[in-house]
Fold:
Amino acid sequence: MVLAFLLGAVTVAGFAPFYLFPLPIVTLAALFALWHRAAGARPAALIGFAYGLGLFLFGVSWVYVSLHDFGAMPAPLAALATLLFCAFIALLPAAAGYASAKLNVPPAVKLGLFIPALWTLAEWTRGWLFTGFPWLAVGYSQVPLSPLAGYAPVLGVYGVTLSSAVTAGLLVVLWQRCTTRDEGGGRRAEGKAWPGISFKSLILHPSSLILIALWLAGWGLKQIEWTEPVGTPVTVSLLQGNIAQDLKWREERVRATLDAYRGLAEASTSRLIILPETALPLFLEQVPQDYLSALTAHARKNQGDILIGVPERLPNGEYFNSVVSFGTAPTQAYRKSHLVPFGEFIPLRPVLGWIVGVLAIPLQDFARGAEDQQPLAVAGQRVAVNICYEDAFGEEIIRQLPEATVLVNVSNVAWFGRSIAPQQHLQISQARALETGRYLLRATNTGVTAAIDPRGEVVAGAPEFTAATVTHPIQGYSGSTPYVRWGNYAALTLCLTLIAVARWAGSRGVRSAA
Structure:
């Protein structure tokens, strides 16, 4: 369990901002080997739990920063809440470990098919259970550098997870091949050097051939242009105001915040200007009319539009986390539909409502926007807007496709301070660009503000914790990647197929033995 915990902790270096993409595959292979050697289902579950706990404690430790540093939760309570949260989501790797010991199949089948499918299904479950937390899915670690990232436009990030897990499992099979030897009668003793093994025989081993094919296919898929340019390029400006989170909602700082964003906007000549999530710390109805008129006039001067992140309150008292457009096109709005538990709404309020009194978080009771909202028609583009961690849910992003020509994410990750969360979020956005074959534009309060091309590459960006404007020409795209058409169904079907094949192989082995 100690080794599994350390393996999970080390895995974090495989994700942004470190991008050591081979590392999660290696640590996953070590985890699968531990599961394979486990004495039973319960030890395998404990090993999976330890791995998950190490991964999440080190990978999402910024939850503590959000709760304590900016949510004003007392340090002991924030630490306990972070630990319990990480322990809870570590139950899914534990469940995968438990299930891995329940099927009696040949080692190659278990490691190459069954366990990879279980791991992928566990990550997929984490992506929707209790509104979902898909952070640190192994597939994200392969974006955009690894050849396996080529599977993202076809199977989505969970397909990349599956290909990574199959790679890990086959590596264990090959390792066993190298560390066992015949003892006569076809028997092999583990842990002893293979006396006559050659490089050629290792390369020609079925597991090696599958690995080579898997990675070559991923590389080949990366070369395909799944979507095509449409319309003329448009220059965009992404504004990063760098407003400190502990000052953002103070009444005496509102005017300074408004002036900062107005200054950045009016300095831009771009046809499309984008402000971050809740850039204006007022309800839209409270924003001075002359302020909105000035921004609208500037956008029209540029023959374009400006998108503003601002809370929007309806006459019935409901309020939304919104992005509203002003400029040459009619005013339109996108309202966030996937809200953050405890940040934007309190789940099970009769039971957990006491948390409201512990957290100093403004606007804790947002209403949900509709799930079938259409792209905003602005600046000659059809813009699919998503807010904050909505872009961690690929199956939700594709709701506005293929109609949308460009994706826009507005965020305020100042909640996580100087942690690795903003860089991790950037990598998630890179995966969404790859999956959809479109530019994704990120406008954030403190970083990372960036323009990401359809190949998942950051083509322009600003350093964190500086007031900056990222200006870059972008091209709209049309068409559908396979993932846009299939969503997660293709990857899930593959997982279930692998499990079915493994079970068939197991039952066949039992009949043969009988």
About this structure: The longest strand covers residues 305-313. The chain is about 45% helix and 15% strand. Residues 182-195, 510-514 have pLDDT under 50 and may be disordered.
